[in-house]
Each structure stands twice: as C-alpha cells, then as structure tokens.
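Its record is quoted verbatim for completeness.
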Amino acid sequence: MSAPRHLLDTNVLVRFLSGDPPAQAAAARKLFARAAGGEITLDVSPVIVAETYYTLHSFYGVERKVASEKLALLLQQRRQASRGEPGAGGVAALAGGQYRVC
C-alpha cells in the first residue's frame, strides 16, 4: 500500500523554510519528518514553488539567490526520495531545521 499523498501549499513551505511563526514552523517540520520517514508523500506544484520564492524574497527579505538555492535543495531532496535514491535523507535534515533560510 502506498503512502497517503498530500499537496503542499505556500504557507507550509514558507513556515518550514522561515521558521516563522515558531508553532507553525514546528508543525511543518513534523510534516516533513513524516514524509522523510515514508509515512506520507508530499507533492508540490510549480506555482506553489514560485509563490514560496516570491514570499521569501519580498516579505522575509531573503536574497534571491539564497531563496532559490534552498528551494532547489528541497526539491532535489524530494526527487531523490521519490526515486528511492541515496541522499534522500536530506529531507530529514531539512525537517530538523538545518536549512532555515531566514
């Protein structure tokens, strides 16, 4: 049986990457940890990625390069996990807050 799929929205990604507000960021990290453990699958559309990039840059003041690098890292880890490739554990590191951008 495959893991249940969940479509992420901009708020979840922004909370996960910004750590703000703390309670919502913690909930987002738990969601990513569940995905890293194979309990659920997280999907994200290109529009959501674009909205997240815009929000990180325009509202949180994250430099464009930094915002794009962190989103690219997150998406790369997601692709590796979906293919069962080595290195997919990076999502777990992200879930631990290692890659907060703000």
